[in-house]
What we know:
single chain; 296 residues; alpha/beta
Amino acid sequence: xxxxxxxxxxxxxxxxxxxxxxxxxxxxxxxxxxxxxxxxxxxxxxxxxxxxxxxxxxxxxxxxxxxxxxxxxxxxxxxxxxxxxxxxxxxxxxxxxxxxxxxxxxxxxxxxxxxxxxxxxxxxxxxxxxxxxxxxxxxxxxxxxxxxxxxxxxxxxxxxxxxxxxxxxxxxxxxxxxxxxxxxxxxxxxxxxxxxxxxxxxxxxxxxxxxxxxxxxxxxxxxxxxxxxxxxxxxxxxxxxxxxxxxxxxxxxxxxxxxxxxxxxxxxxxxxxxxxxxxxxxxxxxxxxxxxxxxx
Length: 296
């Protein structure tokens, strides 16, 4: 999966899937059976830590919390994904520790952590630590990784899609096992978000381990992959309604919200890049969430 939630489909991102906000709505496909209309709608923002000074990033995080978002994400890369490839950029997890102190209400996390960059036991401890710093507001977003420059310049073996996914499958139970052995333990059952749509491995791992599935693609793709996820849930004995459905949006709610909500998506995330971090679209989605909650 790709971690830039705001620019799917752009050639400069290496062929990201198109955003559901830009996909065809009249698909003729049946609505997926996992719709959970009782789950509250949530709004996330991904503050992409590129092309900005840290003071500007921190200000954007604080402003996003004040604007009413539910979750503030960053991403786990070492270089910008677009714009100047050698532009300003900061590391993910040290930043999340700072965000835990800079905020008081929102959940925080990476969309998504690259499993390959940290030993699973070390990552588990880092997650537990930020969980405590934030008083229980940390989400572990995780995936197998894809940005080859990160791997090459920081000395990690890029391998293949298959080997990276196998490593993710091995890491997830190790992370949870380490949480059970740490002292102190995490403050809560830390929510796990898995990003991606691979039907043989990623969606199986999602059924086995995740509380949130972050998906990519147009409406037809989301419906099809949701059915695959349902099938994996049945195979592993999991209620698919336990898994929150999430996607990225980059258009106004009127153009996307109802169709996505109709197939069960309840977590909508807007991606913002530095240096400006314009929260206008984020505020539109927060207002739509509030109107939806009021039934208006």
